[in-house]
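Give me C-alpha cells for this 515-residue protein.
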Amino acid sequence: MTIRTTLLASVLLAVFGTAAAVPVAAAGATKAPSEVAVSTAKYAVTTYRTELVDTLAELVSYNTVADPVVASDKNPVHIAFKQALKREAQRLGLDYADHGWTVIIGLGSAAERVGVITHGDVQPVDASKWKKSPFVLDRTSEPGKLLARGAEDDKGPIATALYAMKAIRDRGVPLSKRIELYVYMGEESDWGPLTEFLKTHQPPQVNITLDAEYPAVTAEKGSGTIAVTVPRQDAASAPAGEPYVAEFGGGFFRTQIPEDATALVANATPQLEQAVRARAAGQDGMQYHFAWQGSGLAIKARGVSAHSSKPEHGVNAVSMLADALAVRPWANTTAGGVVNFLNEMVGTGLYGEKFGTIAYRDGFMGQMTVAPTVIRQRKQEEGGGIEVSINLRRPQGKSTEQLTGEIHAALAQWQSRQLSLANVTVRINEPWVQKNAPHLPTLMSVFSYFSGMKDPQPVAIGGGTNSRLFPGAVSFGPGMPGKVYTGHSEHEFITEKQLLLNLQMYTAVLVELAR
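Here you go.
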C-alpha cells in the first residue's frame, strides 16, 4: 500500500470511525431557542462585530506561553494579560476577580451560577513560520481569516464570551443565574493549580467549556506518552564505507504533530539520494530539501503541523522522513536505531497498527491515535542518545493496566530484535465521559438553529479540556464539525465568519441557561 493510500485510509477512519452509540442521552428533536435568546444574539452580532475583533487583537498580543521556571501567578506577561482582562471587564460593565492562576469575570448576583470555562495560556510557537508576528492579530494576509497564536485556542472564545455577556447586560435580560467566565492560565501546561483551587472554590452548578468543537463534546480521549531513548551507539557499528544515518531529529512540542524533521546520511551516494527522492515523491503534503555536505546527504522535511489529538489534520514530518529513508536496511547507529524504531513500530499510520497489539477503537470515541511528536538529541549531562516521544490519545475500551502491558510487551519484542532502549517511560491518562449534562438539549437547540444543522448529536474528541474538572461540563465550540482545528498548529486562525457565528451562539446559549 502506498503512503498516499495509507494516509487516505487513516483520514477516512478518523472521520467516519466514530459515529456510534453516544454515552449520554442525545438531544432528540431540537426546538428553536426562545425569542429573547435569538434577539439578544442578533443584537450582539450587529452591535459588537468590530469591537470583538479589536478585543481579540488585544488579547493575542500577550505571549502567554508557560514559563517553565516562573509560575503563572508570578509571570509578568501573564499578570499583564490578566490586567488587560480586568480593563475589558470593567469597560463592559462586568465584575472581575483575580485568584492567581484563575480569573473570574461575572454578570449578575444570583446564587445559582452558569460557568463558562476557558483558558488564557497558549502553546509555544515558531515565529519564523508566520507571515507576521504570531502575537499580532493578522487581519490581512489571508482575507477572512484572523491569524494569531490563541485566535482559536482559546483567546477567541474568551473575547466572544465577554461580548455575549455584554450584550445580555445591554438588553437587560432577566437572569435567574449569575454568569461567570473562568479564565485559567495553565490549561496547556499544568492543571494542578486549578485542581487545588476547586478544592476550596465552589464551581457553578451548570458549566460549558469553550475549548473544543460543536455541537457539544461529551467524551474526551485520555492522553498518554511513550518516551524511549536510543542510547549512544558507536558509528563503527555501521560497515566501513557504507551509508549510515548520522543524525535524525524533529518536532517542536509534544502536543503538536511535527512540521519539521531533519536527517544526515553519512557516506551517501547519488544513487541513495535518488532512491530517497523517489520514495518521498509518493508522500502527499510533504516538501523535501536535499543538500550535500561533503560525503554526507542532509535532508530537511516539511510537513503540516496540527494538534496531536487530530493527527489526521496534519502531515507528520518525523514519520514521513523516516519512511522516506526506508530504501535500504540501516545499521543501528544512534540515529539509525531511531529510524528503524519509527519505521518498524509506528510507520506512517495514525493508529498504532504496527506497535504490537496496542491498536483498538471504541464505537463512540473512535480509534486510539499514536503519533511521534518530538525526536531530540539528549544532552551530555542527560547521558546522550536520542529520545523519541510518542503522543497517544486513547478511548475507553482498554484498562490502563492492559494498555501499559501491551506497550511494554511491544517494546520488549522490538528490543529483542534490534537494540536495547534506555529511559523507557509510559504515562497513560484515563479517557473521560460526561454522563450527566442536563443542559445538553439547550446546546443542541442553539447550535441547530444558528448552524442550520438538523438533529445534531454530541461528539467525542481526542483532546482534553478542563471540562473534566467542572460538574456537568461539556464543550461547546469554538470549532465547527468537519473543519480543521488549527489550535497548536503554526497556522492558527479563526475566520471572521466563525467568530461572529460563535458570538451569536454563545449569547443565545447563555441567555437560555441563565434566564
